[in-house]
Each structure stands twice: as structure tokens, then as C-alpha cells.
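hey so u asked for the seq, here:
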Amino acid sequence: MIVSVAHVVSLTRRQPSVPADRLVAEMVPPPRFGDVRFDTYIPDPNQPGQAAAVLRLERFAAGLNGDGGNGKRRWFRRESAPGGPSGIYLDGGYGVGKTHLLASLWHAAPGPKSLCTFVELTNLVGALGFRQTVEALSGHRLLCIDEFELDDPGDTVLVSTLLGKLADAGVKLAATSNTLPDKLGEGRFAAQDFMREIQGLSARFEALRIDGEDYRHRGLPAAPTPIADDVVAKAAEAAPDGAALDDFAELLAHLATVHPSRYGAMLDGVTGIFWRGVRPVQDQATALRLVVLADRMYDRELPIVASGVPFDELFTEEMVAGGYRKKYLRAISRLVAMAREGAEHVPTR
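ran it, C-alpha cells below
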């Protein structure tokens, strides 16, 4: 049941249409990372790889600006030896600041440039077509790809070919992932059958390993305990305009009717998320759609108020132990952080 309050909306009633030109225009850092820079990244002193990654990325950015550190501009397309790595690949666990660093690189680099998630990149190809996507991006100096994953053989061949075309055109690449580039696809499909494509992707990148503790929960209390359904509704009514109140089961069913490329648009104008009846997700397809939605909500800094089970019980043990383990752990980390932000929206009485 949806509360009939004028300023409360429902995601289940939204079916956004996203034109292709919007997909390209929105390939920039999301609001959460709009103001980050290298000097706002705080390396963990116990993890020297974090500080080393900052220094390497700063040098990479200097190369993109074309002065090589000596004030003399060089042509972008001549900065690396033919056949050498075309970019930087940040590998590490969730919550170590990889997206912060990727967005900092984007901010430090000259244009034209784009930053998108892996899902958004494949969606762009679906919207524009392969040839037009190559044309749209081949004039870029830099393409940053967050949450790089290969979930099926089609993506493997598509992305390998696309990035090869862009690298050959002189586009520098930067990516983040929880999986080393030569291990992409493991546990998801018969990766050995596509090893040529995977190895070709791996050769495009210089991998930097970033270890560390999940900063979203470093030294913070546990996630807020879920509250009652009626309290969630009252919190939505008391929240500012743009509160989105939904029954969790209905929202999961609705996500199956909206292409993941439109989940960001579905959140247009939303200022807070209010879910009633959060329950464990039972099937993989639904769980992966929820992961994408959680990423888009996190990008937009949306607080969450919810009833039902805690977010660390959202995915089954079998799912978390499978090939998508790192995606689910990232989603849990982000949802718990947003729930902590949402605690201030819960009425005290």
C-alpha cells in the first residue's frame, strides 16, 4: 500500500525513458564523488599500497595533461609505446576508496573525458550501437570505468573489442574492480573459453592493488536496527519532498520491468529511500538488479529507512559464497552506510 501524501513518491510507479544523448552526457562522477580530489583521499597508514596508488595516479594524470612533468606538452596519442598498457586498473576490496581515486583522476584529467560504471558502458552500446559508441568515445583523452566486471560471454567479447578500438584510437583507460583483470569472469561463466579476450583486456592495463579496511564502516557503530512498517511510513511523511516509499517485494518485482540503465533516472528528484518489509532475496537475477539499484542510490547519497531484515541478511549464504560474492558484499556495505545516514530521519516518537 502506498501512502497518499503529496510529497511522497513511489519508485514502483516510475517507468523512465532515457534518451541516448542523456546516457553520454551523464557519464561524469556521480554527486557523491563530485568534489573529491587526490588530496581529499586519506590513505590508511597501515596500507602503503593506498598512498602508492595516489602517487601513480597523479603521474598518470600529469601524462594526460601532456606536460610530462616538465612543462612541455606532448601529443596524447604518443604517450605510451605501441602494444603497451593503455591504462590503470585499480584492484581491491570494497570500501577502500577505489571510486574516490577514479573520480579524482577524472577531475585531474583534461577533456574530453567520461566516467561511467561497467553496466552503464554496456548500456551505452545497447542504446547507440557499437560503431556509434566507438565514434562517440574515440575522441576522448580518458575513459574511466567503475565496477568493472564480466558477467557473461557476450560482455567479454563486446568490451574486449570496444576497449581495443578505443585504445588504438589513443584513448587512455582507467578502471576499478574487485577482481584482477586476468581473473575476470571466474565463477560466472566458462572463462577459459574466452581466455583470449580476457588476456587481451588484461594486457591493456597496469594493475594497482589497493588493500585496506572498508572505510564506510571503519570505527563506526553497527547498522541501525530495522524499524516497524508504520514507523517507516511516518518517517516518509515527515521527510522533505522527494521521499520514495515502497513495499520491498513490490519494488523487486518492478525492477524486472525497468532496464538497469534507467535505474538512475528512476531516482530523479528522490531525496530519501523508505522501504517496508525488506526480506532476503531468493534468486540471482533479482539480487543483481538490486545491486545495480543500490549502486545508483549510493551514488546519489540517498539515505535509507527500512523495516524487515537487516541489510547484512539481504542475500543468501549461497549467493554470497558464489561468483558474485564481491558484488553482494559491496551492495551490503553501501546499503548499511545509507541506512546509517537514514537513521536521522526516523521519528523519535
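The two ends are 23 Å apart (CA to CA). Strands lie at 8-9, 87-92, 113-117, 142-146, 172-177, 205-210, 243-247, 272-278, 304-308.
lmk if thats what u needed
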